[in-house]
Each structure stands twice: as structure tokens, then as C-alpha cells.
Design brief:
mainly alpha, 9 helices, 2 domains, Serine Threonine Protein Phosphatase 5, Tetratricopeptide repeat
């Protein structure tokens, strides 16, 4: 069924504005015609032309402005996938974590990873939850998977740094820590993380040298 004439208030207001301004500019056209010495039929033509053009412009402008404003507001309040990058959200998973149910949140993320093994957000969140739960081994597996997905250099940098932290800390594997620190230094030159990795490498090698009396060899990745 078609829309009734009064169903679109924006269009109705545009028409009213156009007609009103058309009448005003029609009167201005008459005065201008008199000043220019135009008489009779051509005076009427001048008034109608000026009023019609002005009214049409006002009507189209007001309608377009209203529609454009509405679209802009709608895009701001309800952004579409064409205007913002999509990122999966896991509000139910995160609600479990906020409520203190870390085990439940881990279970939820692990279930998601079964269905979406390359979901970078799920990999990252699940890994961090495993760190909180004291399961450093599983966290290292997930950080490694996050890096292999290769979504971005930022993901690679983050995963590599977290792996170095785990090997230096909870996992207590200096050999693997050396590998990750060396990767940070080589893959991300000029960054703060690379500078920090070089400092950690030097200190770690010095500590091992003091313990063994010789310079250790870096293990193969």
C-alpha cells in the first residue's frame, strides 16, 4: 500500500517551505521587474520564474538536508559494517570473567575456538585467561596460535612479547625465552619492544655465562 500524503512530515515541511519562499520571491520578482521597467505579461513571467526557481531550490535543499542529517545521525548511533571495521564480540564470555568465573569464561572461549580456531580475539582472550588461571602451558599454545594466524604485525608483536614473558616467568624456560627475545629484536627493529628485548637478551646471557663459565649458544627456534 502506498504512503499517504501526510505520512512523510519531512517532505511536507519541505513543500510548505518551498511554496512560502516561492511566494516571497515572486513578490520580489514583481518589484524587481517594476524597477527594471518590465510591464504586463513579462512582469508576471518574471515574478513566476523567480518564485518558482527559489521555491524549488528551497524545497530540494531542505529535503536533502533533512535526509542527510538523519542518515548521519543514524550512522553515528547505529554504525553499519560499511562504516566501521567488524570485530567479533563475546559479551557472554566476558560477563563470566567480570563475574569472577574465570573457569567458565575459559570454557566458553575454548568452545568458540573449536568452531573458529583462527579467531584472533578469542585466541588472545583465552590465552590471557589461562595465564590468570595459572595454566601457562596452554596460554603459550594459544599465543603461538595467535602468531601463526598472522592477522597483523600488532598481533605478532603482542604474541611474541607474551611468549617471552611466559618463558622467562611461569614456564621457566630460558632457552625458549632467548628464542622469543631474539625474534622480537630481529622482527621489530626500532621499536621499544625490540630495545627491551636486546636488554633482556644481554642480561639473560650474562646470567647463564656466570652459571656455566661460558657463553651459551642460542637454541634453534
Amino acid at each position: 500500500m502506498g504512503r499517504s500524503p501526510g505520512a512523510d512530515p519531512t517532505r511536507a515541511r519541505s513543500i510548505v517551505a518551498g511554496v512560502s519562499l516561492g511566494v516571497i520571491f515572486g513578490a520580489i520578482g514583481i518589484l524587481l521587474g517594476i524597477l527594471l521597467g518590465i510591464k504586463g505579461y513579462w512582469l508576471l513571467v518574471t515574478a513566476v520564474a523567480m518564485g518558482g526557481v527559489a521555491g524549488f531550490i528551497v524545497m530540494k535543499f531542505s529535503a536533502g538536508f533533512a535526509e542527510g542529517s538523519a542518515a548521519a545521525i543514524a550512522a553515528f548511533v547505529h554504525p553499519s559494517g560499511s562504516s566501521v571495521p567488524y570485530e567479533a564480540t563475546f559479551s557472554a564470555h566476558d560477563a563470566l570473567e567480570v563475574a569472577g568465573d574465570v573457569a567458565g569464561a575459559i570454557e566458553a572461549y575454548e568452545a568458540t575456538l573449536v568452531a573458529e580456531p583462527e579467531n584472533t580475539r578469542a585466541l588472545r582472550q583465552a590465552a590471557e585467561l589461562h595465564v590468570r588461571a595459572g595454566n601457562a602451558g596452554r596460554a603459550a599454545e594459544l599465543f603461538g596460535a595467535l602468531r601463526r594466524v598472522g592477522a597483523s604485525r600488532e598481533s605478532e608483536l603482542y604474541a611474541t612479547q607474551r611468549l617471552a614473558d611466559l618463558y622467562l616467568g611461569a614456564l621457566g624456560d630460558d632457552g625458549r625465552a632467548l628464542v622469543e627475545l631474539r625474534r622480537l629484536a630481529e622482527r621489530f627493529p626500532g621499536t621499544r619492544e625490540a630495545d627491551g628485548a636486546r636488554v633482556a637478551l644481554r642480561r639473560l646471557k650474562e646470567a647463564r655465562e656466570r652459571e656455566t663459565g661460558r657463553e651459551p649458544r642460542d637454541p634453534a627456534p
